[in-house]
# Entry
Amino acid sequence: MIYTTKAQAKRLTGISYLGSVNMTTKHQKAFKYNELTYSLYLAPAKMSGYEVCPMRTKECTKLCLNESGMNTMNMEDDKINRSRIAKTKLFFEHREFFVNWMFDEIKSTELKAKKLGYKFSVRLNNTSDITPESFYLHVNDKPVNILQYFQHIQFYDYTKVPKRVELLKKYKNYDLTFSYSGHNLNECHTMLNNNIRVAVVFNKVPKVFWDRKVIDGDLYDMRYKDKKNVIVGLKYKRVRSKLTKNKFVIEL
Ligand code: SF4
# Structure
């Protein structure tokens, strides 16, 4: 498949759009900060048949944010999940088509932000944990990834993949927050000691944890605005599948 326009892509795939802008509750908070965040929601874990979360645990899979917020309200028809599965399949099966479409969406959203006088950022992994280097297309026969293509745009992600932080040295426009899974305590301490912030989910967010300052990570999502040596406290959100005993959510 060769991408030509957004309208052609919609027609061919039956998918209305790839990324959304300030649509979910957490991304709507960006409005308060005069910012638009273009966000991609894929089908997490192996829901689409393709694995998008290489370091996931059973617990985080069950508690995954994919099951919270807006999606909780759509239990009847699972429209949102079906759309995320279709996007994920498109990503794996027609990579350059997907990426060309996405680049077009990013360009038009950036333009919109400019017209509004807003800042603009991109979060690729909202319900996935894929390296941005996998989002590439060929320019003059050479692969160019999304961080190289949009060097002037701020990207940010959360990850459970320790190796991913190596990208921070390669790309100035990429920000990462490491995520506590309940099973990666040592990695979290290593990250903090290396000036990489760590996100932890709590039943109630404390001021200090592991002897580190905890910031309220629910005020906004644009983590790149935060200091690097802090813990980002996130309040546990209601999900479809209840998991009572787990290490992922810190009970205080
Ligand atoms: S790694 Fe993140 S996106 Fe993937 S299943 Fe776990 S919580 Fe969800």
